[in-house]
């Protein structure tokens, strides 16, 4: 691995999280550095990648990970699905980053005004679900919505936050690779919520970080 890339590697899950938080603060303030986006970086990464965080987030077009965290090539291993729902492909992708690339942090990223959560609420209220494979997404979000149904009627963010916590917990329960790395201190898992209008992230849940 290139010496410059190696020297930037965070020493712990906590320091990896701080890189994300610092980058988001620059994004919100309009002071982005646009790091690691030049030809030298591209060439240095060609033989091997070493991302400092897995970003598992919603597929919403307003959550472009490298932009909102002010990162560049090789910094983030990004996995995205509508409503950040978890399936075998998601778990396999995250486990690859953790086990093969030794990535020290998994960040689950949800956001306000999430279409998947809104669709799940409609299904609960009206007893109908979308057609096609969108139904599968809605059904996977449903447990989070049902857990906070009464609160979420008054506060839509309650369902967003519950689903982030649910996803963090699900990753830990479903993946032995993630659980083992967390237990020995080599990995942290954090849940973050992104505000679409403000552009900032808030910590919702965390383990090992």
UniProtKB/TrEMBL annotation:
<dbReference type="InterPro" id="IPR001765">
    <property type="entry name" value="Carbonic_anhydrase"/>
</dbReference>
<comment type="similarity">
    <text>Belongs to the beta-class carbonic anhydrase family.</text>
</comment>
<dbReference type="GO" id="GO:0015976">
    <property type="term" value="P:carbon utilization"/>
</dbReference>
<dbReference type="Pfam" id="PF00484">
    <property type="entry name" value="Pro_CA"/>
</dbReference>
<comment type="function">
    <text>Catalyzes the reversible hydration of carbon dioxide to form bicarbonate.</text>
</comment>
<feature type="binding site">
    <location>
        <position position="111"/>
    </location>
    <ligand>
        <name>Zn(2+)</name>
    </ligand>
</feature>
<keyword id="KW-0456">Lyase</keyword>
<dbReference type="InterPro" id="IPR015892">
    <property type="entry name" value="Carbonic_anhydrase_CS"/>
</dbReference>
<feature type="binding site">
    <location>
        <position position="114"/>
    </location>
    <ligand>
        <name>Zn(2+)</name>
    </ligand>
</feature>
<keyword id="KW-0479">Metal-binding</keyword>
<protein>
    <recommendedName>
        <fullName>carbonic anhydrase</fullName>
        <ecNumber>4.2.1.1</ecNumber>
    </recommendedName>
</protein>
<dbReference type="GO" id="GO:0004089">
    <property type="term" value="F:carbonate dehydratase activity"/>
</dbReference>
<feature type="binding site">
    <location>
        <position position="58"/>
    </location>
    <ligand>
        <name>Zn(2+)</name>
    </ligand>
</feature>
<keyword id="KW-0862">Zinc</keyword>
<dbReference type="InterPro" id="IPR036874">
    <property type="entry name" value="Carbonic_anhydrase_sf"/>
</dbReference>
<feature type="binding site">
    <location>
        <position position="60"/>
    </location>
    <ligand>
        <name>Zn(2+)</name>
    </ligand>
</feature>
<dbReference type="GO" id="GO:0008270">
    <property type="term" value="F:zinc ion binding"/>
</dbReference>
């Amino acid at each position: 691995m290139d010496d410059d890339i190696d020297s930037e590697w965070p020493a712990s899950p906590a320091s990896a999280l701080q890189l994300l938080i610092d980058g988001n603060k620059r994004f919100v303030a309009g002071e982005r550095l646009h790091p690691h986006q030049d030809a030298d970086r591209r060439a240095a990464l060609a033989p091997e990648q070493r991302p400092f965080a897995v970003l598992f987030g919603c597929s919403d077009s307003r959550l472009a990970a490298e932009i909102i965290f002010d990162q560049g090539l090789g910094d983030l291993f990004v996995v995205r699905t509508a409503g950040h729902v978890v399936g075998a492909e998601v778990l396999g992708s995250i486990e690859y980053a953790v086990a093969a690339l030794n990535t020290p942090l998994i960040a689950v990223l949800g956001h306000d005004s999430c279409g998947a959560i809104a669709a799940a609420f409609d299904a609960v209220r009206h007893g109908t679900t979308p057609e096609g494979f969108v139904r599968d997404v809605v059904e996977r979000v449903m447990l989070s919505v049902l857990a906070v149904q009464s609160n979420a009627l008054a506060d839509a963010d309650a369902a967003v936050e519950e689903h982030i916590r649910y996803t963090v917990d699900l990753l830990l329960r479903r993946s032995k690779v993630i659980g083992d790395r967390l237990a020995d201190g080599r990995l942290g898992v954090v849940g973050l919520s992104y505000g679409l209008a403000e552009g900032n992230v808030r910590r919702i849940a965390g383990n090992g970080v």
